[in-house]
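**User:**
Everyone, produce one record:

**Assistant:**
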Amino acid sequence: MREVLKNYINGHWEGGVTTGTSENPSDLSAPVADYARADARQAEAAIDAAHEAFASWSLSTPQRRADVLDAVGSELLARKDELGSLLAREEGKTLPEAVGEVARAGQIFKFFAGEALRIPGEKLASPRAGVEVEVTREPVGVVAVIAPWNFPFAIPAWKIAPALAYGNTVVFKPAELVAACGWALADIISRAGLPAGVFNLVMGSGRQVGRVLVENRGVDAITFTGSETTGHQVLQQAAARRAKVQLEMGGKNPLVVLADADLDRAVECAVQGAFYSTGQRCTASSRLVVEAGVHDAFVQKLRQRMRQLTVGHAEERGTDIGPVASAAQLDTNLSWLEIARAQGAEHVCGGELVERRTRGHFMAPALFLATPEQRAAREEIFGPIAVVLRANDYEHALALANDTPYGLCAGICTTSLKHATHFRRHAQAGMVMANLPTAGVDYHVPFGGRKASSYGPREQGRHAAEFFTTVKTAYVCA
């Protein structure tokens, strides 16, 4: 029998009311782990513990917080190969991508170890004689971290690390699909020297655990990454009790390819942005907006490059595209292929189920030629499916790029400094890439979007202080 991974509440490991199993999407005959599902009572106990621990942790020294975060970052970096293998098995990300994600999580913790020592403040002159004004940042309180399955180390890291750095306490709920990765991260944090209750892990369903984290008045702030539908529900429920909310909810990101672009480079940007990580990234470039002069040539080159991609077991050397993360997500992807065909999109290549030596959720990346009003060109798919839209010229390409309810990331491939500069200013997105894949951001800079993609302050970098702290203005009469 496999060991059952437990929840971590108030400094102790606890079982749950039921047990779940996380699968290996590369080999369905080899489950990854069994884990204990917490119930509402345990989620409430974790919140109570975090609330109790906040009084002392919020007043802890910056050095103590820095030491804890640095220790977590160091262990992640030291174990990146081992933990990357776990990530590849459980989520299906290729091994190089998985190892890179764990390393990024380690870098995030180390970055915020430094930020714990650099919490900003201001001292201002008052117009009143003998009065001093000081503006400081203080922790918000208990932070609920609700993380998705597609980046099970990096996304929790960029939420948990700043929360702790600025003196907050945390209740962390990972996605059930990647419970073992969430537990592994929690295990490292639990051994880093935190007082009991400062960090808590509760695994379980959104209906049980997630609902409590959103509705419980003991939670002061909620940081959520997931679907737009769930994000809106979180916002509505949290707003009713005036909790602070930060949402990242996806994208339908354009990659514009102009006639003057280096087509080989543009194709690589498209392949990496649209299909790596099996397209399961909110920053994936699933809308390829190509200027008419190079449209056909680009599509031909892209088709040829897609045929060179190897779909296979996430841990096997030479695999370019791992499996789809779950049976449910694979069914969603297949339904999108039918939707695209039914609405008249022209199928270029891909989309077939792929058989390998192990039974898994293997799917060849798919490409369609579409028109802007078709659903496949407007709605987030979250899989290895991309569409190409034809643009008459740069102005038309820019208009198509902005013609989306989302606004997370936008990219352009061009050798024109004029067009790259104009696009950077006029693309309606929180992040813009020129001659780079839309998917792939650094750990020390702000992450987030506009429109339906995001709500609240940015994640990552120094801008994380906007969400994880509250500002206090103090007056002193000398």
